[in-house]
Structures are given as structure tokens and as C-alpha cells.
Amino acid sequence: MPTVSNRSGQTPSSPIRRLVPYAEAAKERGVKIYHLNIGQPDIRTPKIGIDALKNADMEVVAYTHSAGMQSYRDKLVESYKQYNIDVDADEIIVTNGGSEALLFTMLACLDSGDSIIVPEPFYANYNGFAKSLGVNIQPITASIENGFALPPIEAFEKAVTPQTKAILICNPSNPTGYLYSKEELEQLRTIVQKHDLYLIVDEVYRDFCYDGNTPISVLSIEGLEQHAIVVDSISKKYSACGARGGLLMSHNKELMAAAMKFAQARLSPSTFSQILGEAMLDTPQSYFDEVMSEYDSRRKLVVNRLNKIPGVVCPTPKGAFYAFVKLPIDDTDKFCQWLLESFNHNGETVMLAPGSGFYATGGLGTQEARLAYVLKEEDLAKAIDCLEAALAVYPGRVQTVSAEVAS
Amino acid sequence: MPTVSNRSGQTPSSPIRRLVPYAEAAKERGVKIYHLNIGQPDIRTPKIGIDALKNADMEVVAYTHSAGMQSYRDKLVESYKQYNIDVDADEIIVTNGGSEALLFTMLACLDSGDSIIVPEPFYANYNGFAKSLGVNIQPITASIENGFALPPIEAFEKAVTPQTKAILICNPSNPTGYLYSKEELEQLRTIVQKHDLYLIVDEVYRDFCYDGNTPISVLSIEGLEQHAIVVDSISKKYSACGARGGLLMSHNKELMAAAMKFAQARLSPSTFSQILGEAMLDTPQSYFDEVMSEYDSRRKLVVNRLNKIPGVVCPTPKGAFYAFVKLPIDDTDKFCQWLLESFNHNGETVMLAPGSGFYATGGLGTQEARLAYVLKEEDLAKAIDCLEAALAVYPGRVQTVSAEVAS
User: Fold this and answer.
1) How many CB pairs under 8 A join A and B?
2) What residues does each domain of chain B span?
3) I need a labelling partner for B255 at 20 to 30 A (CA). Which of A227, A307, A359, B48 fits?
């Protein structure tokens, strides 16, 4: 029998995947599960987009330009101005989801054996893409004590090796909800300029900022024109995860030409997602106001409730729709399995994403978990009821953990 | 300025791309171009699919299972039986286009430094995917003299090195239209069994077979259960190129588990393309009869007309919708540029894909070109009028080439 590639062996399985059989078994036993383990919102996709797709003339569903339809990219150019992002249409490549944008970015920047610095905890699939391409992730550990702020710049300085080609951050962050400040981005500028690195920023949660905070795009920072690459997506902004609409943007023409080769090899992004995406650029502000108000209420509910549970530490997320929490338990991998396998609260339980999957450094995150507040408040409250009841009886409960948390 | 990856430098640009500025300039001069350079059919996408998409309940466009919707995969299982393909739903991973299926297949089978044997001329983007992953293509040259049949099995035997991990063919072939016989597939079986290789077969043109020929899927060949991987797509079968619907299939469980890791890293295939694809499985036979009759007429027109032009050699394609022809000229790259830059016939010209882009061996294909017969007969006839008139006056015309062609 032929053998599979080493790269597939090194590519981690989805950290949540291990739990799926336990979730399925629980459902078969009639237990209701609140899914806080995945960033699949219950928010409706803007009707203006769905209607455009339904009304589109689609006699022949044809390829589009490999970089995306000109009309869509032109309209994106206008739309990005509101974020102080000043790009041309030829500085945008439309992709099949943010995932493909990240893949093309890594392919264009990084060779097998190269390294990329990523503050941890980070979006677990970064590791999947990196490993599949033979790229090493050099983690720099952020701390729950200061809400997962950018680690000291000296830590980045120390981590840079001759193999280091890029720094990758997610802003606002999945999984921590941390929103990087202009000052932090400027600190990163110092490092990437000094060592001639790319600064790749996953900004797919840009529109989810709370407490009056404004998102700072890396493309608005002066002096990063040749360094900055932005990965974006319609999945979260418009709750259209299944559309697979994404893009990458950069002012660096050589980088865009390199990425374009990979875009041409796969011929075309989805015509459907582009029709949807272009129409959704006209989504009325009232939609976003409503969605943000909803997420803000959910966020407050989650943070308030969790921090009242003895031993639980939940920093206040400034962006995205995740809370990354510390729990007074032995091991969240075990706890999450136990929640599905051995626990229910009035016939209900909750599914979380164990923290360890978001760290590249072994042994970290074992008391942490990510909660996606993507359910309506009523369900979130019940999910936290389950969590609270579970923590009271979980056999692996440990001494209360104390941590001073910046709000 | 940070530098782009070596892999992007090694990845070839689309071979047709170089011609695009000349095509644009010709259009600006008011010249009409018949595009035979790309496999984008003018055939309508089945209405049953478009209607299903338009009528779908899409309040929240959510992720699906990373391997594709269960309902879609179950229905695919039934549908494949007509091709003597007996797969389970968990032996299918639905992808964003055949391109992504090929990417996942290569990632799962091949490491950087590995080699893959591909008969040339081959679909140019195989090289793009291979180079992007550090994989070397070992070409084995097929010959226009026997209509691009499988090269002698001894040539494969000689090419196998310790780095060789797979053989990749396209059946029926883009770009040659050649349809591999059961005997040829069995010859490949001997080689892949002996050397423990994967046999990857791109079967996206399976439904386009002429003269009563039946397509033989590699998955129907006994003894290849652990070796065979099929790449498929809805792009060509249903003229739905922009939907980005594809899949990979294999009975090899280890291989599927490896591919699944990459599928999970990108979360989900397109929900839209799956709704479309599932509904299109109910496309009435009359649609395919009509389409095949149309393509068959086009094929006959192209082959008959081309072989009447002095010096032109056009083997009769048994499948797909391409003709790979030899022209009595110095260099098709130059000729194709000249067609756009310096020629018109009553204000019209034709765009072809130069043959060299389909060969990995340097210097081959310089007198060859691929024509996609994806336009209606009236336009195809005019396109060939242009080609005929062009060959009569092209300054780089050479002595008539003679080649005995198997029909």
C-alpha cells in the first residue's frame, strides 16, 4: 500500500474533532448540546445578498477572473475606505474563503523550512496550513493576566532566526477577543522593518469591536506598505460562513504577483460568493447596528456570568465573538469530554473548544477553553448554567485559580 | 523589502496569461476574438440546479461538514453507480472545485522533494500545484502520431525513481481529448502495484465520450483499491465552472484520513455549490443527450475543418472538448501572439492555447496548440476561417508537417 505524506502526519487534526463522537453519542442519548465550540453564528445573512444571488442571471455559471470580478473588487476598494484602508483593485485577490487567502499568502511568502512567529493562543488552523506547507510556527506566549495583549516586543526580537520570514496575528483575535492597539501594531512595525519580515494580519473580525473601540487595519499603518498583508472574509462579518468568500490584500506588488500564480492555478473564486459579497457591500448600517448590539449583549452576559463562577477567569474581549477563559479544573480536554460523556444539567450540556488546541507550545492551555458566543442570550444563559453546574461537580476540579485580569 | 518564496518563483504563470494583454489590445482596436483558449463552455447550467439554489432556505449561510453535506454525499454514492464506481459516502470529500481536490490529493500523497509521473502534454495547472508544494513532475511524452495514447509502459518503468510516489493522468484528457482504455489502465495498475504508487486520475471530463465509447473509471478497476484516487468536478459536466464544486474519492482509508485534515483546516466546501451539485444529480438525461450531441457536432466540425487545412494535423478526440493540433508554423507562442497583435480576418481573430504550456519537457509542443470547442458551431466555423486565413499569411509558416494520425 502506498504511504501517505509526512506532511499529512505532521498536520494536526482539528482539536475539536476528537470530541465529535462524544457529542454525537450525547445527542443519541437525548442530551441537548449548546455548541459554544465553533464560530458558526446564528445571525442571519443580509437579505440583500441572498436576494442578489436569487435574482442573478445565471444561465451559465462561468469562471470569473482569477483575482475576482472587477466590479466586486472595485466596490471593495470603495468600501475599505471606511476603515482607512486605501487599496487599488489590483491589490486585492478574491479567494474561496479566508482559508484560501491564508493558503495563498503562506505559499507566496514562505518556503518549506521557513518559520513564522505567531502569538499564542492562536486560531488552530494556522498550524494546519503551516504544517501542510512545511512551515514552522514559532509561538510567543500571550498571557491571560493582561487579557492576551501583545507579548513584549523583546520576546519577538529574541524569537527571530534566519528562517523567520513573517509574523502572523489575528486582529481582533480569534480565539482571545483581544484587539491590538495602534501602539502594538507600531511595535510590530519596528520588528518587521528591522528584520525584513512580512506582517500578515487576519482581520476577518474587524467589524466586531466593542466599547467604542475602532479597529486599526495594518494597511493603515505607515511604513508597512511592503510588509503588510491582510486576510479578510465575508464569513463572520455577514454571517455567511458557508459562502466561502475571502480575499487577501497587499500593497506589495511582488507579493501580489506571486500570490496571483496560485490564484490562477485554481482558476477562479466562487462566482456565487462574489455575487453575494458584492451585493452585501450595500448592507444597511442598521443590520450591523443590530448585530453588534446583539453580540455586545451576549458578550456582557458571558463575561459577567463567567466571572461570577468561583475560580473562573474571563478577560473582557474587546473584539470578535469569543471568550478565552481559565477554568478551575485539571485539564480542559478531559473536562470537555466529560461534559459530553458523563454530565448533563436538566438534560442539557455544553460543548467548548479545549484551550490546548490553540497553543503550539506543549502543555499550555490545559486549564483554558474558548467559548464562541454565537447563540442567542437565552441559550447562552442556559449554556453557562450547564457550565456552572458542571464545575460544581466535576471530579477533576482543582483549587481556585487566581489571576488579575485587565478589562 | 521582504522577499517572496522560492516556490512562487518556481510556480509557472498561466501559459495563456502572457497573451492576455495582446487580447485586450486587440479588443480595444475593435477586433473580435473567438476564445478557443479556455475550457469555459457556453452551455447553460442545468436549470434544476439553479432553481434549487434560488429556492433554497438560506437565512444563515452556514458551514457544512468539512467533507461535504451528508445528503449530497449520499446522493453522489447512488449516482456514481452508473459509472461502475462503488464508493461509500465516507470515501468522498467534497471540495471547492476540482482544483482543491487535486491540492488535497497532492498534500495527502506527496512531500516536498517527491516526484509524480505525468504523461505530457498535460493540464498546465498540474505543474502549478506540484511546484507550489515542492513536488517534481516527471513527464513521459505522448505522441500526436498515435493520438496521444498512453506511452509504452516501459517508459513508465524507466522513469520510476525512489522519489516517485504517484502517477497522474487525466481521463478523458485535457488537453488531448484522448480516452484511456481499460487495457491502458491495467498497464498502469501493473506499474503502481509493483512500485507501490498512487494512481491519481482526473476524471472531470468523464461524461464527454464520443463514438459510443464508455468511460472507464480507475475506481472500477480491480486491485487498485489502495492506489486509486479520483478527482472530480461539477464544472465541466454541468457547465458550472464558477460554482467551484469538486470532490476527491478513494477507497484508501488512510489516504482519506490524511486528506480530511486539510479539508478540516479550510473548514467547509461552498454551501452554494453543494446545493447546486446535489440538485443537479437529478438533471434529466435529455440535458446530457442534447449537450453531447452539440459537442459531438462541434468536434466533428473542428476535426474535419482542421485536417483539411494544408499542414495541420488534428487527431480525433475521443473525449473531453479539446483538440490538440499540430500547425505548420515555427512556434505557437509566437503565432498565438501574432494572431492577436498583427492579424485579423474581416475584423476577427482567434485565441488558442500554445502547446508548450502543456509540456514539462522544454522545447516540446512548439508547433502544437490546444483548441477548446466550447463555442457554438457557427462561431467555431468562423474561428477556423480565421485560423485558416492566418496560416496562409503567417510569416513564420514552415514546410508542411506530416504525421500519421490514428483516428
Assistant:
1) 255
2) 6-44+286-393, 47-280
3) A359
